[in-house]
Every structure is written in C-alpha cells, then in structure tokens.
Amino acid sequence: MPLYNNSSYNLTVAVALLFAGALYISLSSRSISNPISDLQHNPNTPKPIRDIEFPMDELEAVLDSAAAGNNKTVIITVVNKAYVEEVEEGRTMLDLFLESFWEGEGTLPLLDHLMVVAADQTAYDRCRFRRLHCYKMETEGVDLEGEKVYMSADFIEMMWRRTRLLLDVLGRGYHLIFTDTDVMWLRSPFSRLFNNGSLDMQISVDNNDVGAGHLINTGFYHVRSNNRTISLFQKWYDMRLNSKGMKEQDVLKNLLHSGFFDQLGLTVGFLSTTHFSGFCQDSPDMDVVTTVHANCCRHITAKVFDLTLVLREWKRYKASHVNNKWSPHVKCLGSWNDIHYVPKS
C-alpha cells in the first residue's frame, strides 16, 4: 500500500513551493532596497524647485501670511524690549504705533499685512500676545534688548541687522514697506506709493530742501523686489565692514550721492514731508498728511510724549476737519540736551 495518495502528494508539493517562495522574497527584500525610500534619503537627490527657491522656514511662513492678498507686499517694523514696555502714562511705543492704524484713515486693514520683527524674546512674546504677524530676528552675539540711543554702538548694530533682514526679504521675492515704530500711520500710503509703478524705491526725507542733496531717512521707505534693489541692499550691507561708526542711513546716502543707484539703473523717488511728515520738518497740511515720524529726536521717552500729542491732535482734526498746525515737539527738541537721560534697560 503506498505511503501517499495523489492528493496528499500534491498538497505537500504546494506547501513546499509556498515556503520556498516566501523564503526567496524575504531574502530578496534584504538585498534590494526600496527605491522611493532611497530617493527620499539620498543626499544627492535634487530637492524640488520650490524648496530650493522658497524654503518654508519661519521667516517665509510669516512673510507668506502677512503678504497674503496684498500683491506680495508686506509692511515691516522692528521692535525690542524698550519699545514694548511702558514709558509715559502706561503707554508703549508699540501701543502708539498700533493705535495710529486704528485711528488713521484706511489704515486699519493694513494691520493684516504688518510683520513685527522682534529683536528679543520680550518683544516677541508681546507681539504674539497681540496676535500680530511676528518674527524673532537672529541676534546671536549681540544684546539688542534695551533701548538703543541714537548713534550708540548698539543702535548702529541694530540698524545693520535690520538691513540684513530686509535684504533677505527682498531676496525671497517680497516687496516691502519698512516703517520705524515711531511713525504714525494717519492715512494709507499705498495710493501715493503706487502712483508710479516704475520706481524701484521710494524713501522719506528729513526735509524738502535738496540744495545739499536729498537728506534721506531710512525710517520709512518702499522697495520693490527685483535684481536692482537686491543688488543695492547687498552692496549696502557689505559696506558696513568699511563704515565703522557710521549708521546705515549715512552709508546709503553716500551710495546715492556716489552714483551707485545710477550704475544699477535703479529708479528712486523721494517722499515729500508734506505727505510723509516728521519732527525734522512738519507737514503744513493735515488734509494730505499720510505719516508722521518722530525723527530728529534722541530717545524713546521724548518720542512717546510728543507722538501722543500728535495722535491727540489728529483725533481733534478728524472731529472738526480744521487744518491746524502741529504743536511744537518740545520733548524731542529738548532730548538733545538731556544729559541726565538714562536709557531704558
């Protein structure tokens, strides 16, 4: 009698074949890698074009959010601890800055496109508390937390760090309006800035007298992102190495007067103080004034005091539409002789 019948033999062969197949697959999987996994982990594999050109890091994420629906244009200001802590009557410089957007004509929606750059953790936390678009600037190796009095070494360093950041923003393809936090936005500037689409850059001035050349002020300017402006900002930033003791504004002014703008083919407009006013030269016409800058002022306490008066007079103008003159900026005028002033820590 046979030990196996046909059905038993066939079953045995089938089981053996299945086992052999499973063993082959197991051994093969150890020697043949997953091509998709290799592609993801191979350091030589090219990254997608978008990742190379527009890495979605923290800065890109904040810029993308702030510029949404605004033709890739973002409003940028820089603050540190001194600008977010109380100075006069419980006010902070950041409070006044934001209040001007609330009180201005057509300015409130612009807060959606404002990116606040924080130079320290305190400023960043305060920005986040206010639910703004916030970015913490890299400040490794330097303390930018306290008040940086005009033309101090730390003041100059902060200005150069700011310039480097703005170069990065332009290099990512974003147009920008940079504004100091001591600029009150009383009307939307966009209609005036965009009247002439051919200009690469538009910048504020301390006064309208051009006899000695344009006295540009880097506290407020609009820049379109293109090869010319990126080249300008790169040259500007590189010149810090040979400009010890000079603030970035003076270096840019030298580039302008040296003809470097012309070499680049860069077109620039200068914003009249009639519309873009400042403490150096007040606008004579409240009916057309767009911004008011606390320039020609040495320290933050004086700025907050005099800008508080500016907002008070603006509210009075809105209620009456009587075109009055601005009050004298007494505190700022006296700030240059305030030898006992102690900067905010």
TrEMBL record:
Annotated InterPro entries: At1g28695/At4g15970-like (IPR044821), Nucl-diP-sugar_transferase (IPR005069)
Domain of life: Eukaryota
Nucleotide-diphospho-sugar transferase domain residues: 110-307
Record's protein name: Nucleotide-diphospho-sugar transferase domain-containing protein
Organism, as annotated: Thlaspi arvense (Field penny-cress)
